[in-house]
Amino acid sequence: MPELPEVEALRDFLHERLTGREVRRVMPVAVSVLKTYDPGPDALEGRTVTGVQRHGKFLDLDADGLHLVVHLARAGWLRWREALPAQPPRPGKGPLALRLWLAEPAAGGGGNADAEGFDLTEAGTRKRLVVYCVHDPGEVPGVARLGPDPLADEFTPEVFAELLRGKRQRLKGLLRDQSVVAGIGNAYSDEILHAARMSPFKIAAEMSEDEIAALYEALRVTLRDAVERSRGVAAGELKAEKKTGLRVHGRKGQPCPVCGDTVREVSFSDSALQYCPTCQTGGKPLADRRMSRLLK
What we know:
By secondary structure, this protein is of the alpha+beta class.
C-alpha cells in the first residue's frame, strides 16, 4: 500500500506535470471507483489544474476549485502515460479504474491526438481504490477524520505526547490509526518501531517521557528519510524504491541490519507485521496469534 512517503513523491511528480494544464476528460472505468456523483467527473473537463496536495495517504488534484481526491488503497497505483489513446477504454474486469486525459498544450496537436495523462489501476479482485469529486476535500469522510500530518511543522513533540496520553492502544495499531496520525501504514509503522527499538505491542499509555521522545524522533526521521529517498523517483519506480529502503518490514527470515538477529513475523487475518526480537522485545519472540503476548 502506498503510504505517506510514496504519496508525497506522487504529489511532487503530479504537481510538476499537471499544474497549469487543462483537463480534457476524466473517465471512471471500474464501477466501484467513484464515490460521488454531484458534481460528476465531467465537471473537471476544461478546468485548469492549479495544484496537487496530499492529505495523509490521499492525493488531491485541485482544478480551479474542484477537487479530484484519490485513495490508492492496498493494491492501487497511478501510472503516468505520455500518450493516452483518444478512444475511451471499455469497462471490464481488468485493473484499469479511471483514466484522465490532459488537453494538448497550446502549441500541441489537435483535439483528437493522443495526449498525456494518467491511469489509476488496481490489482486483484478486492477493489478498494476510491475517487471523489468534491468542492472541498473536507467533504471526503477519510480526509475529514485524519489526525495531524507527522511531517508538518506543527507536529511537535508536545503534540505527539498529547496524542498518546491515556491511549490503551498497542503502538502498532496506534501508528496506523489515521485519526491519530495521518499517512502511516503497515510498512512504515514496522520501520518506525524498529528504529525506536520498541515492541509493536507496547501500550501507548504506559510509555515514559523518554520513550515518547524516542518514538517521536524515530517517526520523524524514518518518514523524512523515506521521503528524501523517494523524491525525484519516477512514479513507476516508487514501489521498488520503497522496498529497498525497508529494514524489517517484508523481510521475515532475513538478518536484522542492526544486530544480525533473524527478523520475525506475526500474522493476522489480513496483514502481518515484522520485527527484530533483539532490537525490540528483549530477545523474546512474539507469539504468532491474533491476541499475541510476549512468550514467557
